[in-house]
Amino acid sequence: MGDAFSLALGLVSGLDPEFLSIVALSLRVSLTATCIAFALAFPCAVLVATRDFPGRPGVLVLVNAFQGLPPVVVGLVLYLLLSRSGPLGFLGLLFTPGGMIAAQTVLIFPLALALQHRVAQGVWTDFGDALKIDGAGFAVIVRTLLGMARVPLATVFLTCFGRAIAEVGAIMIVGGNIRGYTRSMTTAIVLETSKGELPLAMALGMVLVGLTILASLVVLLLARATRDER
Q1: Structural Rg of the chain based on CA atoms
Q2: Whose CA is closest to 193, among 216, 177, 217?
Q3: CA distance 14 to 5
Q4: Among 153, 189, 192, 218, which is least packed, fewest CB within 10 Å?
Q5: Residue 219: its pLDDT value, please?
Q6: Nearest Cα to 153, choosing from 62, 42, 67, 57?
């Protein structure tokens, strides 16, 4: 174990090319998926927070329930959709980084929507009447709430990124864990551990834990900044 740990530190400090490519792919896929999910979810969150419509309670129930979607089930469904014989096979996304981005986007969209809804609901409760009096349209409301809730929304973004970067099941199924192409930190850890090749797995684990801690630290600092502003 000591030798494996020493080799892992060597990979981290020595900037091994394979190690760097895996980390870079993981960051690119997770950041892209988080940005897409965040951008798609926010208008939906504002709509649910500011409008009364038939079925609204059911939508909220589904959104909260889908936060616990099993990643392997999401991966299986996307695999069937993106496979050559599937309805979306023409996109050519199966076993590509694009497919991995799609999988993570689907997984974290409900989380982004649920957390953004809570933020939007709070701001709307405080300032909704003023926006109604001004006759603000939906696009104006979206921009206004986005500007007024920058700090809590940044916290939501980092929370979603932390969920995305740690995901393994869906991206392994959709991405195929292809060396040098779709191998992420989490899928590489699973593979290398199963092979008994611990140094690379431990090195990637260090980076993954470090990124998770960093994201959590920034979330705490942002939350403290929000409390201080109040």
Answers
A1: 20
A2: 177
A3: 14
A4: 218
A5: 77
A6: 42
Q: Give me the pLDDT at residue 1, please.
A: 46
Number of H helices, E strands in the chain: 10, 0
pTM recorded for the entire structure: 0.88
Tokens of 26: 């993981």
Q: Is 136 left (phi over 0), alpha (psi -120 to 50) or beta?
A: beta
Tell the residue number behind the tokens 């996109």, with chain if given: 91
Average pLDDT of the chain? 86
- Which pLDDT does position 164 carry in this prediction? 93
84 or 224: whose pLDDT is higher? 84
The residue type of 189 is I
The answer to whether 136 and 123 have CB atoms below 8 angstroms apart is no
Identify the CA nearest to 9 among candidates 207, 224, 227, 220: 207
Name residue, tokens 């140094």.
199
Please state the φ and ψ torsions of residue 14, each to the nearest 5 degrees: -90, -5
Report angle CA 168, 34, 9 to the nearest 5 degrees: 50
Judged on CB neighbours under 10 Å (0-12, 13-18, 19+), 226 is middle
| 2 pLDDT above the threshold of 70 | no
d(CA 6, CA 94): 37
Residue 183: what residue type?
R
Alpha-helical segments (H) within 51-149: 56-66, 71-82, 97-133, 138-148
